[in-house]
Design a protein that fits this description.
By secondary structure, the protein is mainly alpha-helical. It is built from five helices and two strands, in the order ααααββα. Helix 3 packs parallel to helix 4. The chain starts with a helix and ends in a 19-residue tail after the last helix.
């Protein structure tokens, strides 16, 4: 039996939450210096990279909240300030970042759970960070939300491992159900 796009996004939301918690658990093992050291990554440090993922999620959730299927589910995101830049440091310490991350992951999971398959066939009109109008398939943009996190978590796990902390397994396979047989 084929897995629906919506079921796939629900799986991604569960995976997203689990991996974000694991990366925060691993980052807690780092010294403040290791957490903030510029290692030449896109967003410099582990803390900078994890902040960027949060920034990206807030930007995208605010855009998704403009879609009729998502307004109610994402009304909590209205209270969050629009990040000033993609490299904004919203949380200067890991404890605050963990709190914000857990809240955003809950918002994402609740939103995805409330979406319908028909909504995924719609398009989303929005402006990119340069102000240019865009109009793209909603399902593709939701995929981007999750893939953006995977990309930058991969960078963060590399930075964490450079400090001698083993992140462990990152495979989605852990959450995919086996078929009886």
């Amino acid at each position: 039996m084929a897995v629906s796009m919506l079921d796939q996004f629900k799986l991604f939301a569960r995976y997203n939450r689990l991996m974000n918690q694991r990366i925060l658990d691993a980052a807690e093992k780092l010294s403040r210096d290791d957490l903030t050291r510029d290692r030449g990554a896109f967003f410099k440090s582990v803390l900078g990279t994890l902040n960027h993922v949060l920034v990206g999620d807030i930007i995208w959730l605010k855009r998704f909240a403009m879609h009729p299927s998502s307004r109610k589910a994402l009304e909590r995101i209205d209270a969050w300030e629009q990040p000033a830049s993609l490299d904004a440091i919203l949380c200067a310490d890991l404890e605050n970042l963990a709190t914000q991350r857990a809240a955003i992951d809950e918002i994402i999971a609740d939103w995805i759970t409330g979406l319908s398959e028909s909504a995924l066939e719609d398009r989303l009109a929005y402006r990119n960070t340069a102000g240019k109008p865009q109009n793209k398939p909603l399902a593709s943009l939701i995929s981007h939300l999750f893939l953006h996190q995977v990309h930058h978590r991969g960078q963060a796990t590399t930075l964490i491992s450079q400090s001698g902390v083993d992140f462990g397994d990152t495979d989605l396979l852990e959450l995919i159900d086996d078929a009886p047989g």
